[in-house]
Amino acid sequence: MTAFTEAPPEAAGVPEPAAKTKGGGGLLTYLVIRFLLIIPTILILVTMVFFLMRITGDPITAALGGRLPADQLQIRIHEAGYDRPIMIQYFEYLGQLLTGNFGRTISDNRAVTDMLTTFGSATLELAINAVIVALIVGIPLGMIAAHRRDKASDAVLRVFAILFYATPVFFAGLLLKLVFGVWLGWTPIAGRATTTTELALTQLSAPTGIYWLDALRSGNMDAFWDVERHAILPAIALGLLTAGVFLRLVRTNLIGTSARTTSRRAARVVSASSAS
């Protein structure tokens, strides 16, 4: 009986099979596609909001109608340009957005950019925390599901991935707040930090508005952990949504990579056998 050993395809005179490019879909491809979809998504949302706000008239009349005399209301409408043709308003609106001019609020005449600066940092902080949660939860569970393919644990993890992705964020947030904030009392149920911490962080020179980053810059670890205690429930509620996507992507890609590796090894053995 002749024993065969695995030999590289070059030694057997057979080229190595090319790796398949289809199937599975990489995590990087998914992230790139999602990033590119931001542009048309924003354009569609901006267009919908613009025209929906014009269905019942102009925004100034909708917000201040009945609280201002008719002549003052018309002056405000003319100053804002809402008495011009709708398409001219639309394209001018898009041009202002592209140049970073988001206008001013109707109620208190405050620049929208100031509001974004004030509240946008909180949204960015939440997004960063949510991505960290998604990576910590989704990638390891995806690896476990791929390793335990078609077994009971794999089936359970796939169900969890569907639940993570399908559960509305607001419902997950309320449930987490009820259990861990109200019943168990482990975490705060509101705010970004305690009042003392917020005052200390806002008084820093050139604060970023991202509390945990400002706390690290100042070396105040008590403030850092206070911020994280307030952020943990919102981060989990939002992060589990993306964790379900990561779990499925990691599982699919690991299984696909394993199958391709097995096929290449089998082809090498067959080629070596044929050459012998």
From TrEMBL:
Membrane topology value: Multi-pass membrane protein
Gene3D superfamilies for the chain: MetI-like (1.10.3720.10)
Spans traversing the lipid bilayer: 27-53, 126-147, 159-186, 231-250
Protein name listed in UniProt: ABC transmembrane type-1 domain-containing protein
Keywords: Cell membrane, Membrane, Transmembrane, Transmembrane helix, Transport
SUPFAM superfamilies: MetI-like
CDD domains cross-referenced by the UniProt entry: TM_PBP2
Residue ranges constituting the ABC transmembrane type-1 domain according to the UniProt record: 120-276
Record-stated family: Belongs to the binding-protein-dependent transport system permease family.
Region annotation Disordered: where it falls in the sequence: 1-20
Compartments, record wording: Cell membrane
Regions annotated as coiled coil: none
Predominant cellular place of this UniProt entry's protein: membrane
Domain of life: Bacteria
Annotated source species: Sinomonas cyclohexanicum (Corynebacterium cyclohexanicum)
One Pfam family recorded for the sequence: BPD_transp_1_N
